[in-house]
Design a protein that fits this description.
Layout lengths: L4 E6 L7 H14 L3 E6 L3 H11 L5 E6 L4 H4 L12 E5 L13 E4 L5 H14 L3 E4 L7 E5 L12 E7 L14 H9 L3 E5 L4 H4 L1 H13 L4 H4 L9 E11 L1 H12 L7 E5 L5 H6 L2 H10 L7 H7 L1 H4 L6 E6 L4 H16 L5 E5 L12 H13 L7
Length: about 375
């Protein structure tokens, strides 16, 4: 669908300066090539009127910052015509919130998180994905985006890009972080499988690792799970590249090392956390490693032995290690030492370090992402766009 605008509505009592929000909305919308409008509403009736108006407009996404008012928060579960195009966002951390059909709730990312909510609202309307559950929990799903609609099986099977988001394994960060890459990869001729998984802060480390493994393995069953919406033979399961960003980079490398019914042809770490033991010693992410794995490396050494990419060498699967030169110095160090250790273990991982920050590696417009895909296409032996 052509998206020409995004409406951001703030409910009464929201504890954020409205002019700060207005500036963020205008800047973020411009970066997405759409018009951004920001309204501070007086009450739930005004908000419903605004949203009902948007529901009759084809190309306008919606973000609602509900705030504390109970009548406004009740709109999260409403089923108006606008629900399917609405992302609800709370800057503060909240428990998972139920939503109306087709709408989404994000929380806990602060003021800057509104930018991600706007991006998600626009991407999901502009390039809708097929959401497929691989388990009973609300966080056990993947979103599939394909190059063509309907897919053309006669053109040959599609290479698959599995996307694993980061966020230091914390639940406030979710699969929407990888929306832009999923769209870009589909445009490049890949079947993009953007995977959500239970994070360890709410579910424990074993749930996270099990979900990632199941989310990869289920690729073989998508024709059955979707009732034929994904045709047999559409996905080339011999050319599966797993892309993991930040904490997802660790998950991608571990997934490749573990093996499974769907083999990983290439593991791509995008600013990955590839030395968990040292990350624990340095307290990266304010203790994120120990919090995720259930303790420090000296408390649960067996968990680190199974999970730490540095400890799993040699991996036995082709790898591409990508790192922005303007990123956190500890991540740069981890990645450089990981590549050196992999080479010492007899492997030959691709190594790409170029200008860019922590998010440049997942920005389709960034030169470092363009260089990444040049390498990925070469390794998978494919012509770009096919």
């Amino acid at each position: 669908m052509t998206v020409d605008g995004v409406l951001v509505v703030a409910g009464p009592g929201l504890a954020v300066d409205p002019e700060l929000l207005r500036g963020l909305v205008v800047a973020e919308a411009a970066g997405l090539g759409v018009v951004g409008d920001f309204v501070v509403a007086a009450d739930a009736d005004e908000i419903r009127g605004l949203l009902d108006g948007v529901g009759s407009v084809g190309g306008r996404a919606v973000v609602l910052l509900p705030g504390p008012d109970p009548a406004v928060r009740a709109l999260l579960t409403a089923d108006g015509r606008w629900a399917g195009r609405t992302v609800h966002y709370d800057p503060q951390v909240t428990d998972p919130q139920p939503t109306g059909p087709g709408s989404v709730h994000l929380s806990g990312r602060g003021v800057w998180g509104l930018a991600w909510a706007i991006r998600h609202a626009v991407h999901r309307l502009r390039r809708p994905a097929l959401r497929i559950a691989y388990g009973p929990d609300p966080e056990q799903w993947g979103e599939l985006r394909l190059p063509a609609d309907p897919p053309d099986v006669s053109a040959g099977p599609l290479p698959v890009a599995v996307l694993l988001h980061g966020g230091f394994w914390r639940s406030i960060w979710a699969a929407d972080l990888m929306d832009a890459l999923a769209v870009d990869l589909a445009d490049r001729g890949y079947a993009a499988w953007n995977l959500e998984y239970r994070r360890p802060d709410r579910h424990g480390w074993p749930a996270t690792t099990a979900d990632v493994a199941t989310g990869l393995a289920v690729l073989a069953n998508l024709p059955e799970l979707t009732g034929g919406a994904v045709p047999d033979g559409l996905l080339d399961l011999d050319r599966v590249a797993v892309f993991g960003h930040s904490a997802g980079g660790q998950l991608a490398v571990r997934l490749a090392a573990d093996g499974g019914p769907v083999p990983v042809a290439l593991a791509v770490s995008l600013a990955g956390v590839l030395d968990l033991a040292e990350g624990d010693r340095r307290q990266v992410g304010t203790g994120a490693v120990a919090a995720a794995l259930g303790g420090g490396h000296d408390i649960v050494p067996q968990v680190y032995a199974a999970s730490d990419p540095m400890a799993r060498l040699p991996i036995g699967v082709p790898q591409l290690i990508v790192q922005g030169a303007g990123d956190d110095l500890d991540l740069i160090d981890f990645n450089r030492r990981y590549v050196a250790a992999a080479r010492a273990a007899g492997e030959d991982p691709g190594w790409l370090e170029q200008p860019g920050d922590h998010f440049s590696v997942i920005d389709p417009a960034a030169p470092i992402w363009q260089a990444t895909m040049t390498q990925v296409d070469r390794i998978l032996d494919r012509v770009p766009g096919r």
